[in-house]
Amino acid sequence: MTTGAFARLAAGLELAVTAVVAVVAAVASAPDFVLGVVVGAFLGAINLLALGWLCGRLLGGSGARWPYGVLLGGKLVLLIALVYGAIRVASMDPIALVTGLSLSALGIVMAAGWIAVRKLELTT
Asked: pTM of the prediction?
């Protein structure tokens, strides 16, 4: 399994968990909290997909690899700016936003478990 395929699997699992968390949050809390969770999960999924693509190019590409390293740094700066903007400008609940972003880690763990059970190897 390539790093890009792993990132797509992890992002898909993250979004599936997000759907469940959003339904539970909609029943148990305010709509603002649900919006924060969904926006955070969306940012996390996009970040995960970009990370998988850039790391795949950085590790497996031939020729100049430094531009992908620069793009990884730019991706991190963009993520920080988007989170800051969501909290300061859009006045989203920070706990909800971080909860949504944290679902990326759960997606990665679930995807790693899935490939471990199937005895697959990560390739570039």
From this structure: 0.84
